[in-house]
Specification:
alpha+beta; Beta Polymerase, domain 2; Methane Monooxygenase Hydroxylase, Chain G, domain 1; seven-stranded mixed beta sheet; 7 helices; 57% helix
């Protein structure tokens, strides 16, 4: 749902207002946060014009960066979710000026919703400047990423357990490949968002209070640690898959060894049976009284001898 909040940082007063009342709130000297979502993102140009910001698409699709404009700063952060095994992203473009903040996102963004829920209570207790809203966004974004890292860690543990379950089938490879792809996408998002927060924490700008920047830098450092954690989860998953492939290869080799032993045992027996299966008239052994018994004695001795030899060579 679209929303608008007017803040008075001197009196520590905030109130929800209609989108149509934003202009009056700005004229009264307040600070307004307008959050556009769903179909209302089509009103972005309207509010940019109200805030005196040119409607320029400075962020190309798929990029996350910090852009300093004359009347505001613009940056994009991405909300992330892992639903039904698929990694989903919801980019949020934010315009932050002297007396306004405009957030625009087509899909639901959990960190924006969390900021909307908590900022009013925290605003009355600790807010000193509009930079407080930047910190709240960064804080809830970090919480969103931390939660997803924990979800990925749980998924990795579940897959590890399933990998070494003898009842699994080839579908496990599809699951692992999908999770690794999600981890790589998440890693890119964390790194890009970290750079955005780092820019917010280090750039000299009239729109970013210096008192807020150290806290933003701490959140950027947290994202840096989360990127390491995500990389670790990917390495654990890859190593588990390699170990599983090694176990499968070992099982296959053991099976082939047994088949080879059986083939080796039957090879001389097949030779003997083949020789005496030929249709020649002059084969003296065919007329021996104990020829059949002799065949089985020779066959048994050959099998036992080969088995003993392979055990001595540690082939069995």
């Amino acid at each position: 749902m679209p929303s608008a909040i007017a803040f008075d940082f001197d009196k520590r007063v905030d109130r929800e207002i209609d989108l149509d009342d934003v202009s009056a709130a700005l004229k009264a000297g307040g600070f307004c946060w307008v959050n556009l979502t769903g179909d209302d993102v089509s009103r972005k140009a309207e509010f940019l014009d109200l805030f005196g910001v040119p409607d320029e698409e400075t962020n190309t699709p798929g990029t996350l960066r910090f852009v300093a404009q004359k009347d505001c700063i613009q940056f994009t952060l991405v909300d992330t979710q892992l639903t039904e095994g698929k990694f989903r992203k919801s980019p949020v473009t934010i315009y932050f000026g002297q007396h306004f903040m405009l957030s625009v996102h087509k899909k639901h963004a959990a960190f924006v919703a969390g900021t909307l829920e908590s900022c009013r209570e925290n605003f009355r207790n600790i807010a000193l400047s509009p930079g407080f809203l930047l910190f709240e966004l960064a804080d809830h974004l970090a919480q969103n990423y931390t939660t997803l890292v924990q979800v990925l860690a749980t998924k990795t543990q579940e897959i590890e357990s399933e990998l070494f379950n003898e009842d699994n089938d080839d579908r496990i490879f599809t699951v692992v490949a999908s999770l690794i792809r999600s981890i790589l996408e998440f890693y890119k998002v964390i790194v890009s968002s970290r750079e955005v927060l780092h820019d917010l924490a280090t750039r000299l700008s009239p729109f970013i209070p210096e008192t807020t920047q150290p806290y933003l830098e701490k959140k950027a450092a947290l994202l840096d640690r989360l990127s390491v954690d995500v990389t670790t989860e990917r390495e654990i998953l890859s190593e588990s898959l390699h170990l599983y492939m090694g176990i499968v290869t070992h099982r296959t080799n053991a099976l082939l060894t047994r088949l080879t032993v059986v083939g080796t045992l039957f090879l001389p027996l097949t030779f003997i049976a083949g020789v005496y299966g030929m249709n020649f008239d002059v084969m003296p052994e065919l007329h021996w009284k104990y020829g059949y018994l002799t065949f089985w004695i020779v066959a048994g001795a050959t099998a036992v001898g080969l088995t003993a030899y392979m055990q001595r060579k540690k082939w069995l």
